[in-house]
Amino acid sequence: MLIKRAPMFKASEITDPKLYFNRREFIAGAAALALLPRGAAAAAAPAGQLLKATRNQSFSISDPATKFESATTYNNFYEFGPDKDDPARLAHTLKPRPWTVQVDGHVAKPKTYDIDELLKLFPLEERVYALRCVEGWSMVIPWIGFPLASLLKRVEPTGQAKLVEFTTLQDPEQFPAQKPSLLGLSGIEWPYIEGLRLDEAMHPLTLLSVGMYGQVLPNQNGAPIRLVVPWKYGFKSAKSIVRIRLVSQQPKTTWEKAQSQEYGFYSNVNPEVDHPRWSQASERRIGEFMRRKTLMFNGYADQVAWLYAGMDLRKYY
Ligand SMILES: Nc1nc2c(c(=O)[nH]1)N[C@H]1C(S)=C(S)[C@@H](COP(=O)(O)O)O[C@H]1N2
Ligand SMILES: [Mo]
What we know:
By secondary structure, the chain is an alpha+beta fold. The protein has one domain (11-308): Oxidoreductase, molybdopterin-binding domain (Sulfite Oxidase, Chain A, domain 2). It is built from 8 helices and 13 strands. The strands form 2 sheets. Strands 1, 4, 5, 8, 9, 10, 12 and 13 form an 8-stranded mixed β-sheet that branches. Strand 12 and strand 13 (292-293) form a beta hairpin. The longest helix is centred in the first third of the chain and has 12 residues, at 23-34.
């Protein structure tokens, strides 16, 4: 078990990078990334292309949105490095066009979609969702996108399709932390893989997002297309997706591979089940001073609890 290699952690480090094994190499890799040049401020600037969408009020929470500035400069996107400011600093190397998304596996109509083709297929909606990171912070973001279910229905899952696997782009030219020379960051196996059960994937709350705050997704938030699963910890919401595969076996996800005793396949937001190294009972809403109580399923219990009826959520964390 990897945990044996874990150094003792100071409280101040608890909300820091999930990766604490290989810590020495990890820091070396992070130092190498820090030397990379800052991009044209473009990556972090609110200069994005506008994207029209109608707000879907019935799928939106009324909490005030996190400041755009915070939502685009305090991110986890390990392909750019382990620190929260690495994505905004380095994301200019990601090229969101041309881009294709391969949808395959157990489907009657597998297809590789060009991103612009995909954007024309479904009406875009704006939905205000909270996303809570497993590290204990949360943000409220007006996402723009369409339900994943719309795309899945189009490719017609067969009876063998039980789960969905999501794969992020693998390209060290675009994602500096994937460079083999940055071995220190290899605590993560690339590409980044996530997964959902088919019923979770088909749930109307599950969104494929292509924009936020009225504009196309900034690179650091997962351009050109990323998942948003608001009742699960943030890492389930895979960014910069190139493949969506319908499978019959539970995919081995990135964080399970890295630390299976800490990050399970389900990873539903659950204030009653603590992370082995910290409590999940409360969170810091970015921009707020006081911590707030974390809600079961991140506040979406009425909509999603039925998916887990009869399941022991301590076992299926
Ligand atoms: N490909 C990829 N997707 C990812 C991550 C990542 O490192 N790589 N980080 C995840 C984590 S831990 C969180 S909290 C959310 C953050 O999304 P945001 O930056 O848009 O807030 O993205 C998730 N998606
Ligand atoms: Mo996260």
